[in-house]
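Notes for week 9. Today we move from apo structures to complexes. The key idea is that a small molecule is not decoration. When we ask for a structure prediction with zinc ion present, the ligand SMILES becomes part of the input, just like the chain. The input block below holds both the sequence and the ligand string. Read it once before you look at the output, and try to guess where the molecule might sit.
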Amino acid sequence: MPFDTIIGHDRPKQILQAGLRKEQFSHAYLFFGNKGIGKSLTAKMLAQTINCEEPVKNGSDACGQCWSCTQIENAVHPDVFCTAPMRFTKDNIPIPDARLQIKIEQVREMQEHLVYRALIGRYKIYIVDDADRMNKEAANCLLKTLEEPPDHSLIFLISSRPQHLLPTIRSRCQKLRFTPLSLSAIQETLERQQQRSADDARLTAGFSQGSLGVAFETNPIEVRKERDHIVNTVGIDSLMQGGILQIFSASEALTKSNFTDTTLTWLTHWLRDILILQISNNPERLMNKDRFTDLAQAGERCTPKIIIDLLETIQSMRQGLRRNLNAQVQMEVFLLKLHDAFEIPTSP
Ligand SMILES: [Zn+2]
């Protein structure tokens, strides 16, 4: 059944399915949360259930097989539309491109569709992907529709940056937060649906930051390369040998070109693995199992408490980055701490 195929997101699913059973809908929804975690897919499945010819489970799920469900699946249903930031090929074929803006023409086109009642289904449904990419004119134009929504129409705004939407738009939508999936849920899905090995699936899940969409598109070989680049740049041995100069150059390398978030994610996984070995000595639970020897050696050079302190430092670095503190300076402070943590005391 379609809703069951969405991994995780139990809370939003429960709210939406309760609405389906009672046939109570908001005119507009704002689904927000990280990119690629299932927001658009959930909107599409809700559209399927609402317009399904033979809905199941007291009307709270789509059959997934009728003409209407199939048309929505193939994005050709006459009552269900999607729009997103687009660019067009020479043959005028639209290609979604999240770097672009949603223009007023796209919102006007939606409004023209919504004027009329559903042709075949029960509701006219419009899904606006990357809704925070609407330019000012488009956003103001959409606001008019949200202020006086046509009957038998539902609008879904999908956004990973809801703070970039007009407050007046946000306040007119029922908001549903989609939280990142757990690592184990992503790992299990990759093993089951893509037949990846447990080691590859665990590593890819760690890289995905809770997004199944990212995990599906990620090549474990590329991920290992990126991970190795980061952990080798902050490699304990090179920091010790290179001293303060190495710390400055590593900080610069790790913080250029918006790489900081990825760097912090890998450092967190790396330190967690060291902690797991210190506490349980169980390599099966490691995300970076292929680097077992390096992790074990690092773990012998410091205590679990030091690793926990370093993990807390990474947490506060993330908060600092959100407040726009200087990434390179923060990374320098972190690497100095790392250097001190692994320094072997010299004999008196
Ligand atoms: Zn159906």
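The two ends are 70 Å apart (CA to CA).
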